[in-house]
Amino acid sequence: MKGNGIISTLYEHGTLASLMAGNMAGTITLADLLKHGSTGIGTFDGLDGEVIILDGEVYQAVSDGTVNHVTDSQAKMPFASVHTPADLEELKLTDVDFNALNGKFVQQHELKNVFAALCLTGKFSHVKVRIAPKQKEPYPSLLEVAQGQPTFTRDDVNGTIIGYYAPEIFGSVTAAGWHLHFISDDRQFAGHLLEFTAPALTGDLQIFDALEQHLPIADQAFRQGEVDMATLRDSIAQSEGNQD
Fold first, then answer.
1. DSSP H or E run through 144
2. 110 contacts: CB under 8 Å, gap ≥ 6
3. CA pair distance 121, 135, nearest whole angstrom
4. Which of 230, 216, 212 is nearest to 83 (CA)?
5. Could you report the per-residue pLDDT of 196-219, keeping only the tens digit for each?
6. Backbone angles phi, psi at 214, to 5 degrees
7. Where does residue 134 rank: exposed (0-12), middle (13-18), buried (19+ CB within 10 A)?
8. With 0-12 CB in 10 A as exposed, 13-18 as middle and 19+ as buried, what is 15?
9. Degrees (nearest 5) of the Cα angle 8, 239, 46?
10. Rounded distance between C-alpha atoms, residue 122 and residue 146, angstroms
11. 118 contacts 180 by C-beta, under 8 angstroms
C-alpha cells in the first residue's frame, strides 16, 4: 500500500476512443514519449504493430509475427502509455491466467478504482497474442481492424507481461480492466496478450496517484474526430479481446 507521499504518474498519449474512431496517425515521437517513462505499451503510426517498452528499450511486434528492436527516436505513435517504475509491490503468483488477474487479483489488491502497472516474468505454459497490421489512409475503425488481426501462440516460453489496469469509469480514455502486452526473453515473440497460463510468475505491481492525459491538440483529425459513444464500450471490449 502506498504511503510514502511520493506521487507516481501514469502518462498516456492520445485516447482509445480516438483510436477506435480511426485516428491512427502518429502524433507523438518516441523521443518525447520516453521523457515521461521508461516502461510501457502502445502502437506505432498507422496502428503498426504492438509496442513493448522495457527499461527504455523499445520493441515492436509486427503482423507477420516478427519483433523489431526500434531505435528511431523520431518514430511516431498515436496511442501509448508509459511510466517510471517506483514504489513497487513485489509479486509471487501461482496458477496465473486472465481469470485470476481479472478476479481475485483485482479484489486482493483493491484495484477497481485505481490505475496500476503490472510486470510479470517467468515461464509460461501457453501464450496467445494478436498483432495489429499497419493500416493505410483512409483509416478504418479499430473494431474493423481487430476483426481481422493475426494471432500467434507459443507454448513453454520464458517472457514478460507488461501493461496496465484502468478503472471502468475511464473505459473510453483507455481500456478498462487489463491492457497487457507480452514479449519473450529472446525478443522473438510478442504482441497484445489475449490469453496465457503459467504455473508461477514473479514481478511487481505499481499503483498510480495520478493519470497525466496528453492530447494531440495540433492534429486536425483528432480535433475533428467523431466518437460513437453509444457503441464505444462494446466496441472496445470486442477489440481488446481479453475481457471475458
1. helix 142-146
2. none
3. 31
4. 212
5. 999 999 999 999 999 999 999 999
6. -105, 125
7. middle
8. buried
9. 80
10. 28
11. yes
The predicted structure's pLDDT at residue 242:
59
pTM for the full predicted model: 0.94
Cβ contacts of residue 118 below 8 Å, gap of 6+?
101, 161, 162, 163, 164, 165, 178, 180, 203, 204, 205
In this structure, what is the dihedral angle of CA atoms 97, 231, 214, 30, given to the nearest 10 degrees? 60
Residues whose CB is less than 8 angstroms from the CB of residue 244 and which lie 6 or more positions away in sequence, other chains included:
none
User: In degrees, to the nearest 5, what angle opens at C-alpha 98 toward C-alphas 93 and 104?
Assistant: 60
Give the pLDDT score at 5. Answer: 64
The residue with cell 514473479 is 202
Considering all CA atoms of the chain, what is the largest pairwise distance in Å, rounded to the nearest integer? 48
CB count, 10 Å around CB of 218? 8
Between the alpha carbon of residue 108 and those of residues 56, 195, 204, 234, the distances in Å are 30, 21, 14, 27
Spatial separation of the C-alpha atoms in residues 133 and 48, rounded to whole Å: 6
Below-70 pLDDT ranges, the chain: 1-5, 231, 242-244
Tell me how far the alpha carbon of residue 204 is from its chain's centroid.
16
Report in angstroms the alpha-carbon separations of 12 from 52, 147, 169, 189: 14, 25, 16, 25
